[in-house]
């Protein structure tokens, strides 16, 4: 794995049909930090993630790393859809990356065993996706992402289908295993963003050009009753709702 890199989006524009999703949108993601991208449904969070991942082409603008090198080979990407292949077991789906790269699967067997245990799926290692619940499938997809040794990790609502306790546990696991990486997490949940992030980026409602970035003063992962969360949560919530005030309290 190379040294984790920062990412710059420079005047990115995207139009879908007659709808302008972004117009000259610029964003800086510092390396070796967790970033959360917040905003209401349909505002373009997933589209922005796909543009960074190279899965969707912007109409204009540039996306590049600190070194100016291509990003595609350095990214692990977890979409909202778990993307499990129905004919592969949970274990085999977790090892999909090494399989596609024709690597020796024995090299990752121990890590897969550890991940299956950490996400609570060891008894289901040989189960096909059809017999797994939605939350279990999402845990397989998360383990598959965590197995990849990439310095940039993009995750689109990775914890959305999980119950509250499992969600908390897997947030902690992801934060632990992705230390030192550059992570961009798309979420609808301000609490999740405030617990996990070094920086919040909030897409402004009704504006395809505006994004507010808010560095947090303390280090994640924060407890749910952390003072900084209590201070910032109402302001972040209000900004997501109507965009009429900055997320940073006066």
Write the layout of secondary structure elements.
Layout: E1 7-16, E2 19-29, E3 34-38, H1 45-53, E4 60-65, E5 75-78, H2 90-94, H3 96-100, H4 106-118, H5 134-147, E6 152-156, H6 164-177, E7 182-186, H7 190-196, E8 199-203, E9 211-215, H8 227-242
Helix pairs in contact: 4-5, 7-8
What class would the helix/strand composition place it in?
A: alpha/beta
Major beta-sheet overview: 6 strands, mixed
Mean pLDDT across every amino acid position: 90
Gross morphology is globular
- Give the low-pLDDT segments: none
Which sequence of strands runs across the widest sheet? 5-6-7-3-8-9
Question: How many separate helices?
Answer: 8
Number of strands: 9
Give the DSSP E fraction (strand runs of 2 or more residues). Answer: 15-25%
Overview of the structural elements:
By secondary structure, the chain is an alpha/beta fold. It has helices at 45-53, 90-94, 96-100, 106-118, 134-147, 164-177, 190-196, 227-242; strands at residues 7-16, 19-29, 34-38, 60-65, 75-78, 152-156, 182-186, 199-203, 211-215. The strands form 2 sheets. Strands 5-6-7-3-8-9 form a 6-stranded mixed beta sheet, with helices on both faces. Strands 2-1-4 form a 3-stranded antiparallel beta sheet, covered by helices on one side. Strand 1 and strand 2 form a beta hairpin.
